[in-house]
Amino acid sequence: MIVAFSVTPLGVGEDVGEYVADAVRVVRESGLPNRTDAMFTSIEGEWDEVMDVVRRAVAVVEERAPRVSVVLKADIRRGVTDGLTSKVETVERHLSS
């Protein structure tokens, strides 16, 4: 499964990069395949392990922010591995032809 999610601290002002970095650090330290862009962090793995990482990423932000907003989108597809890479490669292949 691939989960794309964003964690946004509320009530801490406009500069939230430090809080977001805390959440991304949790994801990267998980050892699961992941990718971060300007809007979301995507993580790939089995349901329980991915959702545990998302929960811990939210918790680390919640420790310092009075309110946290989470947006989550999941692609649940049995038997697919390396979807973070293969999905992008498929689109790039179509773009180059």
TrEMBL record:
Pfam families recorded: Thiamine_BP
InterPro entries, per database record: MTH1187/YkoF-like, Thiamine_BP, UPF0045_domain
Domain Thiamine-binding protein: 3-92
Gene3D superfamilies: 3.30.70.930
GO cellular component, one term: cytosol
Family: Belongs to the UPF0045 family.
Protein name stated in the entry: Thiamine-binding protein domain-containing protein
Native source species: Streptomyces yokosukanensis
